[in-house]
Write a structure and sequence with these properties.
heterotrimer; A alpha+beta (178); B alpha/beta (1050); C mainly alpha (471); A: 178 residues; alpha+beta; 13% strand; B: 1050 residues; alpha/beta; seven-stranded mixed beta sheet; 31 helices; 28% helix; 17% strand
Chain lengths: 178, 1050, 471
């Protein structure tokens, strides 16, 4: 059952092992709609909450391919179709000369895809998010580690879940208002 | 011109009434609104308004001092302002005489299609027949007149540049009396009054001083004046006169005569300090150069000729000579007399000749003897009469007279001893015998012998009248300045070097209402209103030796630019024997030789920016003259290049910068005349030094330096190509070589063989070099297909190029090439599209020089093109490498990647967009390039297209009858500007796809080679390797270590 | 544990194999964060910073005047001429681009190579890259004859004239390479900044500052999922930048290698230019970081270990460059081509020969001192060496550009080159701009990547192990 009032329950930890342990436990207990918050990337934490692979790489690949083919076809179209002219006796389609441009465009396309794709998938920019309402949450970007089980999770039950989180001995468990 | 020569219009000049600012205000205040503007316009054409303007804004701005600190453009701005005002009075109109007026569109005029008019450029040594290109009646380009033997289609450097003088914004634009604005009418009145007064005394106080007059009509007019005023006198004066030749003739024949040389018949030519291969300051340069090089083209079966040069300066003639002996100008006479003795033509014994000189003398004598009757000895114009006599005697002894030398009437109608004349005139002036002195052009105050103090003498004359194109040194001290008319603005006539006469017709009305000498002289006759046009008509009506109706003849003469059989017949003369007495100069004395400058001549072209920025041959010096001396002389006296030294000649001195010249004799200093002027104009003021300051009547040609000392300061010279000397401590094999020359040889830029070598191995240009012409497989890419249509190409004959600079200026005129000024030239920003590279081989004390005209090579694999990021330089299907000025953003990468460095960049706004008078000068078919744009030779693409259009027009006409008819561009229909100007026919341009075209046939010669072909540029311009014909008894000075082109004689 | 003590000993007494640590021991997440943040979130700006800023700002005005006069009068105010149609402008362009390489190299390549010591210097290095590329980017535009057209004609924009760029020209490759390089470096740098900006947001006192940083970090909240994607993207960006950074200077070297000019037309240019770029890049990083490290007390994070490693990289790349010089000389002799031979002879003994020998001294002879640990571990000496290398690399570009140009195929058109005061003004101006931009950067953004510092701390590992401390 879903409680409209709150976004979820947030537990705060001091160390990395505690966070990872708790996350693992929650996942084992069948919780799925949850997330960890930490001041630096912790691969095991993501693993623990069952987030194993992401599609960023794929997006980047597509971006790169588009960029590369775009670059070459631009050079080709300009030099062969749009504006063919005798330059130093070189053929219109002098492909070796088009390689550098192709390469640069590939990198450009891929990099843009990487940056924009990553942000888009993370749903950023997002100026407001309920977790910011947690009083201590500012420390998530400094030294503390958080685990948040969301009310959207089918198993979520305010009391049960709170009890469950208390068992993972966090510093404090607080409600995240919506 | 060709039509209605009959209805003549008279010049009617009414003295204009003055107008005061006050009147202007009244007139304007009267009117309001629209009427205000109308009355303003009325005012502008109102009589006297121009004077008012002029007085408010005098044209004195033209004497603005030129300082190196101030940029050329600022001057242009200033000038622009004053010109704009003067412009009100100087709108170009058609002359009153019937030249087709533009307003009445004549059926034979197609706007945009230039017309060509034949005329003649007057020059002291004889008129130069030219064709003038006229775009909508603006003369824009001078070309040679093929129908006249004295030109046969070519010009020299002065003729090419003379068009700029017409549009020179510094020209005198109004007449003045005591610096008060006057007009022709005022002067007319003054003369009328004077005639009445002077009539009684027979014009005892009346003197005329003119330049050397080669116009029969003017002389006829002058003589009528002298008849009217018997006691008046007329003198001629040119600082570069022919006194030596003339007095020699007088002494030899008792009459004046001009030697005419036949180079085509001469197997051996000996030049005794005669520079007959640079410009018209040697009479007959153009036909002579052509005839001389005919014998060096190897094309015909005629054997190659041989040129010996004994000279005191590094001239193009010496550079081309097969054997060269450097001697002080004063020693050459000794040599000549010794030679005369050796050949049994009188002369004295060889006294004080060194062993080398003896060796040279014997070899030359032997060679001349062997070719008696087919040899030629030419005396230098800057040498005393004795040498001319000796030369004539030698020619006589060799039986050359009548074969290679003949005699004719001199071009000047009345030859005189100009020095004597001037001395007499100045005497009269100082004695107060002269009340009115009429100076027709010239600039005696500047160029008269310094000891005569002409300026002082003028002070003693009540009325000095100066007819002049410029407000120059002379005009400033004469009471009357009458602004003259350029030869393109007036009617006249002129005799060529061989006496053949031709007419001078105006191409444009006098820009500033100037008047010609004809009109001025006419004022003193009983028909004061007679115009120049009437004058020549009247004269030739009486003297024209042609059957039939005069009007028809006259029109034909105008059209052809030559008056047939007007040349006074050849004279058969034999020089009297008897050796002239010679006083040799002490060996250790340092002589000072005065020469006309290769670009400013005697100073008359001093304000011609094109000539000022034209590199002097071999010296490669621009904008200045210098004290020129040999390496060892400079070293011995402890002078460095650009040191300013003080040269003292009997009490008078001049300060000049040192320029080391390779191949000059020891103890000899050459000073070029024509510089150091301060009332010349923006292009000439303050450049160089005035050598006239030490040129006196005692030593007009060769002086002796009393004292030479460093002044301590230095003067920077703009030398556009510097020859680094390999220091003697280097590899002895290369000792005293020029680095550039040595490298040019090593890089096969220059290929040369001796005549014998050439006969053995005509393919020496390839068999003797390492250049492998690139193959198709050298490139990753398939080449472009250039086998169809027109494919333009050029061949340049290194053996015929005499380095005379005509092509350089022709290119500048044709393509609106900007002048950048000395400061920019010095840092290497010269804009010339065509330059004449000069390389020295052999010992720099007496080197051989090679001239290599260098212009865009129009490579088929042009390295400049692929590197341009915006495609501003690309190839046309006809194989021309074109610049798209509008597209150029100026990365300059193309220039970096051009192996020939023929690209020129507008680093600043070099083109003059401001000065109004320069605008009509521009070739309307060529873009005027702006700042930040790259430019270069275009193979005169505008001429190619003109020919193409012509061909297509005619083709369509043909196809009206026969649809299959074809009309291709014919061979020789496209003539580039450089090719057109070349006197020796060294440049040939055409379609290399056409097997019969001249250029194809020339390129087929084995001597044909391309530059840097191993870079795989595939240049369209190719060069014909040089062949030299040295006499190995003397030895050869080409001497190129590492190369075996010059084999010993077999 | 015992080795921990050793690293505190002075370099001379230290056992040879032990390197100083990449981060001083005893730090916590909070302490590193605080220490780095302090430079940004402090209410009072240090006097030295203000002083430096005013000076560099003044120098930027010189640049403005020089550029202004250039646009008014044309490139004729510079010393360039025919044949040396390229001069200072191109020399500076190549020099700046070269300097711009270290940043990306440190962040990208060292990241891929798992060089943990890169962490505390990559941020500053990347910023330096951006500013260097900005300086470089000015010159191609300034040096053209008609900059107002070059500014957009060099890009493939559909114009009414229907004309297009000429894609066979190395200059167009340059346009693409440099602009791509700038964009990618910017993205890479900004990506790295996002979590740190979030930290600033959460710690900023003033509301406005908080808002600005809030906007800049786009609402980053350190979610585990985000971190995962972030890591992937960041790693791949690094992977992309690596070939890019190599390609950029390769393309720049083609600006010369494509030409037929002796001294330019050679195949060794790409590797030799890249090595040179890294060489000068690291030199510039040292030139900047050594004083800053002292001024802001960052010795804990930018330790001797960093300085030494950079010194070693310089030594290595310097030797590659030396090899390049040697090959040029060898080839011009071995090829036996008359133009090549002369060109090298002229380079070494010609009228401008002394530049070549200065270059050899500055770029090869003096930097050999880096073989000595004493030199590597003494910041002051190292700083001096790095400056010497910077000058040396500038000279190298001068020798390549000007000396090759001033005497080429036709002896008739040999000339010389003399820089004018405007050439110098423009160059010095860009130096000022570079320094000013860098000062601004260290004032408003963390000059060291905080979140990566946190990762460096042993506490960041899931399982604590003893050898973590041995690192």
């Amino acid at each position: 059952m879903i409680d409209e009032g709150i976004y979820g329950l947030m537990a705060e930890y001091d160390t990395v092992p505690e966070l990872v342990g708790a996350a693992k436990k929650a996942h084992d207990n069948g919780y799925r709609r949850m997330d960890t918050y930490s001041p630096f990337p912790i691969e095991p934490a993501a693993e623990a909450i069952g987030f194993h692979k992401n599609r960023v790489a794929l997006v980047i690949l597509i971006g790169g391919l588009l960029g590369g083919s775009g670059g070459y076809s631009l050079a080709y179209w300009v030099s062969v179709l749009a504006y063919p002219i005798n330059v130093g006796g070189k053929p219109w389609h002098s492909w070796p000369a088009f390689i550098p441009i192709t390469f640069e465009c590939t990198v450009l396309g891929a990099s843009l895809a990487a940056f924009i794709g990553m942000l888009a998938m993370n749903g950023l920019p997002m100026p407001y998010h309920p977790v910011f309402n947690v009083p201590n949450f500012a420390l998530a970007s400094k030294e503390k580690f958080f685990l948040c089980i969301e009310s959207a999770d089918p198993q979520f039950d305010l009391t049960k879940t709170r009890m469950f989180l208390e068992e993972t001995n966090p510093r404090v468990v607080s409600e995240v208002p919506n | 011109m060709e039509n209605h020569t009959d209805n003549l219009v008279q010049i009617t000049t009414t003295p204009k009434r003055k107008l005061s600012l006050q009147e202007v205000r009244e007139r304007l205040s009267a009117a309001k609104g629209k009427a205000y503007w109308r009355s303003l316009e009325e005012l502008v054409d109102a009589p006297g308004f121009e004077e008012l303007l002029e007085n408010e804004f005098p044209a004195g701005v033209t004497e603005f001092p030129q300082e190196s600190g101030v940029s050329r453009r600022n001057f242009m701005k200033l000038m622009g302002a004053s010109m704009a005002l003067a412009g009100l009075s100087a709108c170009t109109r058609q002359p009153e005489e019937p030249i087709v007026p533009y307003v009445r569109q004549p059926e034979d005029l197609i706007p945009g299609v230039p017309k060509y008019f034949a005329t003649t450029m007057p020059f002291p040594t004889g008129g130069i027949p030219v064709l003038v290109k006229s775009n909508e009646f603006r003369p824009t380009k001078i070309e040679g007149n093929a129908m006249h033997p004295a030109s046969s289609g070519a010009t020299d450097v002065f003729a090419q540049a003379s068009i700029l003088d017409l549009y020179d914004p510094d020209r005198a634009q109004n007449s003045s009396y005591r610096d008060q604005r006057r007009n022709w009418g005022d002067f007319h009145d003054a003369i009328d009054a004077y005639k009445v007064k002077a009539g009684a005394s027979g014009g005892a106080g009346l003197r005329f001083l003119s330049e050397t007059i080669i116009s029969p009509t003017l002389v006829w007019q002058m003589q009528t004046v002298l008849k009217k005023f018997p006691s008046a006198k007329w003198y001629q004066w040119d600082p570069i006169h022919r006194d030596s030749a003339r007095s020699a003739a007088k002494q030899m024949f008792g009459q004046y005569a001009e030697p005419i040389y036949n180079f085509e018949a001469a197997n051996v030519v000996l030049s005794l300090d005669a520079d007959f291969l640079y410009a018209s300051y040697f009479p007959g340069f153009i036909p002579y150069a052509r005839a001389f090089t005919k014998r060096r083209k190897m094309a015909e079966d005629t054997p190659m000729n041989r040129l010996y040069a004994v000279e005191s300066f590094a001239t193009t003639t010496g550079a081309l000579s097969d054997n060269r002996l450097r001697m002080r100008a004063s020693d050459i006479m000794v040599f000549a007399s010794a030679l005369a003795a050796a050949l049994g033509g009188g002369g004295g014994a060889a006294t004080g000749l060194s062993d080398d000189e003896q060796k040279f003398l014997q070899a030359v004598a032997k060679d001349l003897k062997a070719n008696a009757g087919a040899s030629l000895v030419i005396p230098g114009e800057q040498q005393p009469p004795e040498l001319h006599i000796l030369a004539a005697q030698i020619n006589q002894a060799l039986g050359n007279i009548g074969k290679t030398v003949s005699y004719a009437e001199p071009p000047e109608v009345v030859p005189t001893d100009q020095f004597a004349g001037l001395r007499e005139l100045v005497g009269d002036m100082n004695a107060g015998k002269v009340d009115t002195l009429i100076i027709l052009y010239g600039n005696p105050v500047y160029d008269a012998p310094v000891d005569l103090d002409f300026e002082g003498a003028m002070g003693k004359v009540a009325n000095n009248v100066h007819l002049s194109l410029y407000r120059n040194e002379t005009s400033r001290v004469s009471q009357w300045l009458l602004h003259g008319a350029h030869y393109l603005e007036t009617w006249s006539d002129a005799r060529a070097y061989d006496g053949t006469a031709s007419l001078v017709q105006p191409l444009i009305a006098p820009l500033y209402d100037g008047h010609s000498a004809h009109e001025l002289v006419a004022l003193f006759t009983d028909t004061p209103e007679m115009t120049a046009y009437q004058a020549i008509q009247t004269y030739w009506q009486q003297n024209g030796k042609a059957a039939g109706d005069f009007a028809t003849n006259f029109r034909r003469w105008l059209h052809d630019g030559i008056i047939p059989n007007s040349a006074p017949g050849a004279k058969t003369l034999t020089p009297r024997a008897g050796a002239p007495t010679i006083t040799p100069l002490a060996k250790d004395a340092i002589e000072v030789v005065f020469r006309p400058d290769p670009t400013t001549y005697d100073g008359r072209y001093n304000n011609n920016a094109w000539l000022q920025e034209c590199p002097k041959p071999l010296l490669r010096l621009e904008w200045d003259n210098a004290a020129m001396m040999s390496i060892e002389t400079a070293a011995r006296l402890g002078f460095e290049q650009e040191d300013v030294i003080r040269i003292t000649v009997d009490g008078r001195y001049v300060d000049a910068p040192v320029l080391v010249v390779y191949g000059m004799p020891e103890n000899s200093i050459t000073l070029n005349l024509g510089y150091g002027r301060y009332f010349s104009g923006r292009a000439g003021n303050g450049f160089g030094f005035n050598a006239y300051a030490i040129r006196s009547t005692k030593t007009p040609l060769i002086a002796v330096a009393e004292k030479l000392e460093k002044t301590g300061d230095t003067y920077h010279l703009a030398v556009v190509q510097n020859y680094t000397l390999i220091k003697p401590h280097g590899d002895p094999k290369w000792m005293n070589r020029s680095v550039q020359g040595a490298e040019a040889v090593r890089r096969d830029l220059i290929r040369v063989a001796s005549y014998d070598q050439y006969k053995k191995d005509p393919d020496f240009a390839h068999s003797q070099t390492f250049d492998e012409d690139p193959q198709s497989y050298d490139s990753l890419y398939p080449g472009f297909d250039y086998t169809k249509g027109y494919q333009w190409g050029m061949a340049i004959d290194m053996n015929s190029c005499v380095g005379c600079n005509s092509c350089v200026i022709a290119c500048q005129a044709e393509n609106n090439v900007a002048v950048v000024g000395k400061e920019q030239v010095k840092i290497g920003r010269d804009m010339k599209w065509l330059r004449i590279d000069t390389y020295y081989t052999g010992d720099l004390h007496n080197p051989r020089a090679f001239f290599q005209p260098m212009l865009c090579q129009h490579c088929e694999n042009a390295p400049c093109e692929p590197v341009c990021p915006v495609g501003a330089t690309v190839h046309t299907p006809e194989g021309v490498n074109t610049m798209v000025y509008n597209r150029c953003v100026g990365t300059r990468y193309c220039s970096n990647n051009c192996p020939y460095k023929v690209r020129r960049f507008n680093f600043k706004l070099f083109s003059d967009y401001i000065t109004p008078s320069l605008k009509p000068l521009r070739n309307p078919d060529v873009t005027v390039r702006s700042r930040g744009v790259m430019e270069k030779c275009s193979y005169c693409i505008q001429r190619i297209n003109a020919a193409r259009i012509q061909a297509e027009v005619e083709e369509t006409r043909l196809q009206e009858d026969d649809p299959t008819a074809e009309r291709k561009i014919r061979d020789g229909e496209v003539v580039t500007a450089c090719q057109q100007a070349c006197p020796t026919d060294a440049i040939v341009f055409g379609n290399i796809n056409d097997p019969d075209s001249r250029v194809t046939r020339i390129k087929a010669q084995p001597r044909n080679y391309g530059l840097l072909t191993d870079v795989n540029t595939r240049p369209r311009t190719s060069y014909i390797a040089s062949v030299v014909n040295p006499n190995f008894e003397i030895g050869d000075r080409t001497d190129m270590p590492g190369k075996t082109f010059i084999g010993e004689q077999s | 544990m015992s080795t921990k003590g050793l690293t505190d000993l002075p370099p001379s007494k230290r056992p040879f194999l032990v390197d100083p640590p990449v981060i001083a021991p005893g730090h916590t997440f909070a302490s590193v964060t605080e220490k780095v943040m302090r430079t940004v979130l402090t209410p009072r700006t240090p006097f030295g910073w203000i002083f430096g800023f005013l000076i560099t700002f003044g120098v930027v005005q010189v640049l403005m005047i020089a550029a202004g006069y250039l646009f008014y009068e044309g490139v004729g105010i510079w010393g360039i001429t025919i044949p040396s149609a390229w001069g200072f402008a191109i020399v500076n362009f190549v020099w700046w681009i070269g300097i711009g390489h270290a940043g990306t190299l440190i962040s990208a390549i060292l990241l891929l190579l798992k060089q943990s010591w890169r962490t505390s210097i990559n941020r500053a290095a990347e910023a330096m890259t951006l500013f260097a590329v900005m300086c470089a980017g000015m010159f191609p535009i300034l040096h053209t004859g008609r900059p107002w057209l070059a500014a957009y004609w060099l890009f493939p924009i559909p114009l009414t004239m229907g004309v297009w760029p000429q894609f066979r020209s190395p200059l167009i490759w340059d346009v693409f390479a440099v602009s791509t390089y700038f964009t990618v470096s910017l993205l890479f740098w900004y990506t790295g900044l996002i979590p740190d900006i979030a930290t600033l947001r959460d710690n900023a006192k003033h509301k406005i500052t908080r808002t600005i940083y809030g906007v800049m970090c786009m609402g980053w909240r350190g979610s585990g999922r985000h971190w995962a994607r972030y890591e992937t993207a960041y790693l791949i960006l690094a992977g992309l930048s690596t070939p890019l950074v190599l390609s950029v200077h390769t393309v720049v070297s083609w600006d010369f290698a494509i030409a037929v000019l002796p001294g330019w037309h050679t195949t060794i240019f790409p590797p030799y230019f890249v090595a040179g770029a890294i060489y000068s890049g690291f030199a510039m990083v040292l030139t900047l970081l050594i004083p800053i490290r002292a001024a802001y007390g960052m010795k804990d994070f930018i330790t001797e270990r960093h300085l030494q490693n950079m010194a070693k990289v310089m030594l290595a790349t310097g030797l590659i460059v030396a090899y390049g010089y040697f090959m040029e000389a060898l080839m011009s002799w071995y090829a036996g081509d008359v133009f090549e031979t002369f060109q090298f002879k002229n380079r070494a003994t010609g009228p401008l020969g002394y530049f070549y020998w200065l270059l050899i001294t500055f770029n090869i002879v003096l930097p050999q001192s880096l073989w000595f640990r004493k030199v590597r571990s003494s910041p002051v000496v190292l700083w001096i060496v790095s400056i010497i290398v910077n000058i040396g690399m500038w000279l190298e570009r001068f020798v390549i550009v000007v000396i090759s140009l001033h005497r080429d195929f036709l002896p008739s058109s040999w000339g010389t080159y003399k820089a004018t005061r405007w050439d110098y003004a423009t160059f010095i101006g860009t130096l000022g701009f570079f320094t000013m931009a860098f000062l601004l950067f260290i004032r408003v953004l963390p000059m060291i990547s905080i979140f990566e510092l946190r990762v460096l701390l042993p506490q960041s590992r899931v399982r604590l192990q003893a050898q973590e401390f041995m690192k």
